[in-house]
UniProtKB/TrEMBL annotation:
Keywords: Hydrolase, Signal. Residues 1-20 form the signal peptide. Pfam families: SASA (PF03629). The lineage of its organism: Bacteria, Pseudomonadati, Bacteroidota, Flavobacteriia, Flavobacteriales. Residues 106-349 form the Sialate O-acetylesterase domain. Gene3D superfamilies: SGNH hydrolase. This is Sialate O-acetylesterase. SUPFAM superfamilies: SGNH hydrolase. One of its GO terms (molecular function) is sialate O-acetylesterase activity. InterPro entries: SASA, SGNH_hydro_sf, SIAE. GO terms for biological process: carbohydrate metabolic process.
Length: 459
């Protein structure tokens, strides 16, 4: 018997014993947060047809589980109102796993590119103070390891940790500030899953089924050029980082991305809407999806940034979505605004009002374009979320009107009855209007809540 054969047999024996043990996905670990008052799916692997028990301490019950002949198992458990700490114990013939210090609360998936990935250690406003005071043991953090895959995966690397000055500083700052506000208002545990990768386009986060259904998105993706930070291959981050989590119950998703799609901005609404819909389909849950409108920045293409901002605005037509405007907390020379506090806060306020039913009297959106009416050579532009509409500065700028040929001209604008009246000497019969459409345009229109109006181009 040669040495090679012996080694092969040893590997087979080791593999067999490893498979025989109960194994959990990495998203299940000590310190984790499970979604409250839900049917939460527990799942994993064991020996084919193995019987074992799962014990949940919040109801002091043990349930029998049996794997199929594919060595996989699943079990739905009902979670109580928020609280903890609790324990889960998985007890089989080969091993026993106990997960400790488990909390029940609200779980949010946080994804996108660098402005979501951006941490305190990457530099944020008031960094030292924020880190020093980030002692929130009931906020739990899970960072998904950066992985690509050609096909959807079942597991990913990572582990849950309690939020502390040591752990917060390497975690998504936007997500942390979101959770801090939500926990302050709800007084319950919050779990955050940081699942972002800088410089990534939306295509890499979108499953292959979308591109199969919409070939036009494949053509649009060809404009996205390779970069040194992340792959641009379609679906690869979805397969490696999102697909492994689609069985894990979440409250909703936060998203901060769009800069990498300025090269194919005209198709972003379609791509983004289909990506959101596909995620909800995979989770079998129409969860809230709240996202950040990209900030003004000096892109190579003059109107690319404005186009993405408008496409993001239009994506609000998709049910159960919300958008935080950020044009007032940026500089056009820095694609990574340092004020992550207000970004997280604005997302949190949207969630608190729309998802949790709080902040009933508080406006959480900036003014959004609704429609226009033609009055001679003028257009009356109407907005929603525009109570107390006002302009910062002496003159209202950044409005343009178009003629029948589709040419755009700078327009004069004035406020009247919470509307904006625009006109241009060069256009006698205006047919359309747009606002803050240049990539670097920082708007000056705000509502009484101090939230900026969104870029738009009239439909």
């Amino acid at each position: 018997m040669n040495l090679r054969f012996i080694l092969m047999m040893l590997c087979l024996v080791v593999t067999t014993f490893a498979k025989a043990e109960i194994t959990l996905p990495k998203i299940f670990s000590n310190e984790m947060v499970l979604q409250r008052e839900s049917d939460v799916l527990l799942y994993g692997w064991a020996d084919p047809n193995e019987e074992f028990t799962i014990y949940t301490s919040w109801n002091d019950e043990a349930v029998a589980v049996k794997t199929g002949n594919d060595a996989k198992w699943e079990m739905n458990v009902k979670t109580p109102i928020a609280g903890g700490p609790f324990q889960l114990t998985f007890k089989g013939s080969k091993n026993e796993i106990t997960l400790k210090n488990v909390l029940i609360g609200e779980v949010w998936l946080c994804s996108g590119q660098s402005n979501m990935e951006w941490s305190a250690n990457s530099k944020i406003a008031n960094r030292d103070f924020e880190v020093e005071n980030a002692n929130y043991p009931n906020i739990r953090l899970f960072t998904v390891a950066k992985r690509t895959a050609d096909y959807p995966q079942e597991d990913t690397a990572g582990t849950w940790v309690a939020c502390s000055p040591e752990t917060m500083q390497d975690f998504s700052a936007v997500a942390y500030f979101f959770a801090r506000k939500v926990q302050e208002e709800l007084n319950i545990p919050v779990g955050l899953i940081d699942n972002a990768w800088g410089a990534s386009s939306a295509e890499v986060w979108t499953p292959a089924s979308v591109f199969k259904a919409y070939p036009g998105l494949v053509e649009a993706h060809k404009k996205v050029e390779p970069n040194k930070w992340v792959t641009v291959e379609k679906s690869t981050l979805y397969n490696g980082m999102i697909a492994p989590l689609t069985k894990f119950k979440i409250a909703g998703t936060l998203w901060c991305q769009g800069e990498a799609n300025t090269v194919n901005a005209e198709s972003y609404q379609k791509l983004f809407s289909e990506m959101i819909t596909s995620w909800r389909t995979e989770w079998n849950n129409d969860f809230p999806f709240y996202y950040v409108q990209i900030a003004p920045f000096k892109y190579d293409q003059e109107f690319a940034g404005g186009m993405v901002r408008d496409q993001q605005r239009r994506t609000l037509a998709l049910k159960n979505t919300g958008m935080a405007m950020t044009s007032d907390i940026c500089t056009t020379e820095n694609i990574h605004p340092l004020n992550k506090q207000d970004v997280g806060l604005r997302l949190a306020n949207i969630a608190l009002k729309n998802h949790y039913g709080l902040l009933a009297d508080q406006e959480v959106y900036g003014p959004l374009y609704e429609s226009f009416e033609v009055e001679g050579n003028q257009l009356k532009v109407k907005f929603t979320h525009a109570d107390g509409l006002y302009n910062k500065g002496k003159k209202i700028t950044l409005f343009e009107v178009s003629n029948a040929a589709g040419e755009w001209f700078s327009a004069k604008a004035k406020l009247k009855n919470n509307e904006v009246v625009v006109s241009s000497k060069e256009v006698k019969n205006p047919t359309g209007v747009r606002y803050a459409f240049n990539s670097t345009d920082i708007g000056t229109l705000f509502n009484k809540e101090g939230l900026p109006a969104s870029t738009f181009i009239s439909e």
